[in-house]
Every structure is written in structure tokens, then in C-alpha cells.
Amino acid sequence: MLEASQLEYAYPGAERMSFPDLKCNSGEHWLLLGQSGSGKTTLLHLLAGLRSPKSGSIQIGDTDITKLSSANLDTFRGQNIGIVFQQAHFVRALTVGENLALARKMAGLSPNEGLIDDLLKRLNISHKKDSRPNQLSVGEQQRAAIARALVNEPLVIFADEPTSALDDQNAEVVIDLLKDSAKAANATLLIVTHDQRLKEVFEKQVVM
Amino acid sequence: MALSLILFGLGVGLISLLFLLEKQLQDNFERNLAGIDLVVGAKGSPLQMILCSMYHIDAPTGNVSLGEVRPFLNPKHPLIDQAVPLALGDSYQGSRIVGTDQNILDLYEVEIGEGKVWENNFEVTAGAAVAEKLGLKLGSEFNSSHGFMDSDKMEHDHATPFRVSGILKPSGTVLDQLLLTTPQSFWLVHDHEEAVEEEHEEHEDHAHHDHDHDHAPEPPKSLLDEDPEKEITSLLLTFKGRSYQSLNLARNINENTDLQAASPAIEINRLFNLMDTGERALRMLAIIITIVSGLSIFISLFSSLRDRRYELALMRVMGGRPTTLFNLIVIEGVLLALMGFVFGMILSHTGMYFLAGALEESYRYNFSAWVFQVEDLYLLVGSLILGMVAAVIPATQASKTDISDTLTQ
Q: Where are the domains of chain B?
């Protein structure tokens, strides 16, 4: 479950921004639509605990993450929040498999090779497990990024503009992957985008 | 990054090599002190006399006649326990031949390995290392050369060759590197040559007197009974005890006779002090190289942070704490230093391995390249600390990575 209420944030020297309230139940798939510059990436970073709001509360599962200490927030984020960025970033020196293992380690979870293998198989990139990220195609990199977002079995998955750089066909493939993966993990999925093509695919939407 | 590693390795290697050299040189010098209290020889540089008579790495200061040193050879001398005569100046294929008596074996505590100890003229007992190097076996024969260089031109033209009668056990002392025979053999070689060539110029350092063609192997007389005009190079003395008189003996000799007496302990100490200055300069240089390489590790870590800011932010997203990133960078610095240290150790010990051959030639000791010392351990700890210190500022910077700013860039 993901719930945000009365969130406000201000960049240094800028005006205070307010954000719409959200309430997404477990397993629901939501779309957060907004034009560039509408503050949707800021909202995503607030919800994911990458920034702290000036006021308001964010409830993920049973935890109000605005009340966590920074060290606890780091651990909580690692264990319960999966994020797929617009551009896939990896630790370049490590293989895909090692990147996934590192994600578990960073979150303080035990390594789970079986889970990593299953995940890679489901996303159809098993054969790339021992490859370096830069040896993957863009599509494979995106799958690997999704795998990393899911590897800690998070409560919530955020995706930031996952389709904006893709053509219609590939956009559909990625959205299906995200939805299927979230469903399989029974996680809440929130996609932040300005991509109007996705409007028809999601019933639950917030517009900024 | 590779450059910092090489620099670091060079610095560490140089320091370690200096430690190795210093330690082994000192060990060798000290082991060969052999309880000798005083060396008596011709006037000249006392250090040169010690280096020549005890370490066999310099030319003699000159010769002294038996008549002059006879009092010290007398077993009834009240102060002197042992007096070992040395006749120097000849060699075989670059290895020195020493005319002396069997007491030298007691002095250096060396035992005979095979064969027997030299007794007669032209019998040689070879040190273990020199026997191996020159391929000398029991019964091998050779002619000696004048001087210490390996040169055919200087080979003595004499009828009687030296014959190896025995080989010493390896002892780690300078005797390993020497060919021991009687002092009389020296005189005989040179007397013979004179008779043949009637040539006098080359013999400054050597005994050359009455013609004596009697080369038949017979036990030589005691030096006390020999002609007082005969010459030897020096005497190694040990005292019965450290009395006031024995301490004064050196001064008396130097002031009242044409002889020179020098204490090995004092001269070697002087030598160490001389070497120490040069060594300190080298060590400073090595330390500066190491510090500069530490600085370059710092710079390369720092500049690599820019390239890796996404990776660092990513680790924070995945649940890493600022301290996690801090530790990662510090570990990286320490690992770099460790690699540099290992590289340096390889450098210094292989360097020592190659140096050892050359050093053995000039110092007549065995040097070992594969000795690890407690200093290496200090060097390891120092390296790791340097790596850690070099990483602290980059690590602090990394721990302050702002995830959100970095990812929206």
C-alpha cells in the first residue's frame, strides 16, 4: 500500500510545491501523468524516499517513511521500494547477476541465487546473467533494470518514464513486463510519465 | 590508476630493498667480527686494513716483517690470547688466497667438511662457496695469480701448483669465500718467480727474499722460527681479557712502532656511520616517492568519483548508507595500497636477487633475496595506512552523494 497526503517540497530558493494526495492499494497499478516540469519526478523521488518532503506524510505498508531516520530510510528503501529509472544505470564493473546480488546485499538481505535466476528467466535475459551491463542491448538493459527493481521483492515499484524513449511496440512490451512483474510480486506499481500512449492502458490515474 | 600503483610499488620497493641491504650487510659485517679484538698491520688507512684483513674486500695497506710482529706471535704474550697471521695479495680466478695458520678456523668457528686441513706448503683448504664456484675438488691443482683480479697475465710462473687438500663446511663467514694455505707458500711462490724472472717491480706488497728452491711438501716451521726479514700482511689478535693494558696496546703500537693497530668494532662502526648518510638520503627519496604516489592515489580516487557518481547514487537507491559508500572508497584505497605493496615487494626481492650476484663478488658474502623481515611488516602497515589516508577525503565526498540530484542530472 502506498499513501501520500499533503506533501509539500521546496527546492532551495524556489517556491513551495504542493502535490496531490495519493492512495494506492497493494497490487494496484497506477499512472502518474504530467507534463515536463510539473514536478512529477520530484514527487517520485519524495515517494521513493530519495528526498525528504517539507511537510506531509508518506505511508508505505505500515511505515511512514517521513518519520524514519536517514539510515533506517536507506534500509527501508532498499528492502521495500524498487525503482526503474528512465536510463538504466548499473555498477559497470559487475555482471548483471552480480548487480542483482549487490542490490540484495546493499539492502541487507541474504543473497538468493535461486530468486535471481527465476527473475532473469521470467524477464527472458537468463543468458545475460554473466555479461557486463555494457554488453547488453538497450532493451536488455531495461529488463535488467526491472529485474533489479524487483530482486528485493519490494512492496512498491516506481518507474520513471520507462517508455518515453521507445517506439509503440517496445513501449507495450515494457509496460506488459512491468505489469506482469508487479502482479507476480503482488506489488503496487506507480508509473510516472508524460507519455500519452499509456493513458488507455491504466485505469487508475493521477494527473498533475 | 596504474601509474599511482607503479609509483607506490617503486617507493615501497626501494624502501624494502634498502632495509634488506642494510640488514644483510650489517649481519655479514657483524658475523665476521669473529671476536677479533685488534688487527695489526702496516701503517695506512685503518679502515682499509680492517676491510682487507677481516672482510677481504680491499687491498692491503702494505706488509710488515716477521721481526716487527714477532712479539705478538709469542704464545707467552701476557695480553694476547690468539694471534693469527695473514699473508695476502694473491688470488686464483678472482678468489683470494690467504696464507695463515689453522687457528683461523677456531677464530671463525669453522670446521673442515671433507679432506683435511692444510698443513704443508702448497696445500690449500678451500671455503665451501669458493670451492663450489670454482669447481674445486679434493686433489684439484691450480696456479695462483698476483693481485686480486682474475688475469692470466698475472699468473705466477712457478713449478709447484697449489693442491686442494680439504674443503670447509659452509659457515656463512668470510672463510666460505677464501682459499687458505700456509704463509710460507706465499714466500715460496714469490721467491721462485724472482729466481726465474729477476723482476722486482711488481712485488711491493709481497715477501721477496732469498732464493729458496726447496718446494718439497714439508710441514713449515713455526713463524717464530722463520727469518725475521720475511713478510706477512697483518695479524688478527684476540685478547685474554679486556684489561686496561689490552686497551692501551693499540695506542702503544700506533705511537711507538711502525705498525698500525686498529679495532674492528670501532672501524666498522665508522663505516656504518659513513654508509648511514647515503642510506638516509636514499630512504628520504623513497619516502618522498611513496608519499607522492599516495597523493596520486588520492587524486585518481577523487577524479574517479565523477565517473562513478551514478553508480554511487545507485547504491544509495538500493539501500546503501552513506557509511557504506565511505567504506567502499576506503577499501578501494587500501586495496590499491596493498597491490602497490605487493608490487613493491616483488620489485625489491627480485631486485635483491639480481643484486646478490654482484654484491657477492664485491663483498664476498652470500646475500639472500628471499628473506622477509619485520621491517617488511612495518612497511605493510605503513602502506595500508597511507592508502586509507589517501582515500578519506574522496570517501567523505562519496558518502555525501545526493541521490536525487545525481539521478536527475
A: 2-18+276-408, 38-262
